[in-house]
Amino acid sequence: MKKGITVIICTYNGATRLSETLNHLAAQVVQKSLNWEIILVDNASTDGTSACATEIWRQHDIQHVPLNVIHESKPGKLFAFQKGITQAKYEYFIICDDDNWLSQDYLNVAFNILDKDPKIGAVGGQAIAVSEDGISFPEWFDEVKEGYAVGKQAKNTGDVTYKARLWGAGLASRTQLYLDTYMTFPSVLINKNDQSILSAEDTEYCLRIVLKGYQLYYDSNLSLKHYITSGRLTLNYKSRLYENFSNSNAIMDDYYLALKFGHKGNLSLFNRIRLTLITPFKYIFYSHKKKSKQRKILSYLLPSIITPDSITSKIKKLMDG
Q1: In terms of CATH, what superfamily is 2-228?
Q2: In DSSP terms, which residues pair with 115 in a beta bridge?
Q3: Which of 76, 122, 167, 217 might form a disulfide with 149, Cβ 3.0–4.6 angstroms?
Q4: Rounded to a whole number, what is the distance in angstroms from the first to the last CA of the chain?
Q5: Has this prediction a pTM greater than 0.90?
Q6: Is residue 244 within 8 Å of 234, Cβ to Cβ?
Q7: Residue ranges per domain, the chain?
């Protein structure tokens, strides 16, 4: 792939939000040798999003940075993003949500981090919340801001692989790594029956590349503003947001088990032997819900005896692939 960065914006009915997002991209200050492009994926919008975005970018008249609009009719950010990244022509990509306002040096900083260290699989930064019309944030917002992808993702700049996740907003990573990660092993967050998607696709990607041996990195110099509409600051929206997180937790837990107990995990030999001895007893005596987790653990500790369930089996193949 060509050296450079592809900025991918997935949007549904984002006509009213895209102006500032594109204005901030137009204001990027990059080194002369850095080539970049924008891919906007219109996810079945009905408000003229594509035409609006095209006109906004035309007015900026940045001829060396194309805005390519593509369409994905299947609803869901994961489907939209995967459609977009297949069209990317550059080595690195940045996820820029339609309400993300990237700081002027965002592309430059992200490019330099990824280009200098091939062991870094993905990098993220910090986000500052901006409310619609400058309204005050609810009293409860500060306690749950991480769920809105707001704040600092770590205390200091550096390796955050131990967290095994970064926000999707502003995430920068390697295009071929993403394609390789999902080409053979599709996301397990997709319900095959109705093609619905559980949330946490960004966390799943981070977990997958950590399982493949890549590092996650946080840099406080990567900064963006996250524009939050008043409709997303209601208790009802917050409740639905966290319900979506909860629905995906079971699958995320399967990935975390793989990190701990898989052959690439950090479990010591002593603990592996100890758990191999005591986990069968836990499996026998625990309740049904806890029994399921113990069986998953045993499928890592005693793979020749315990057959993994379908999700664990897919994750194992991902690690070995």
Answers
A1: Spore Coat Polysaccharide Biosynthesis Protein SpsA; Chain A (3.90.550.10)
A2: none
A3: 167
A4: 22
A5: yes
A6: no
A7: 2-228, 259-320
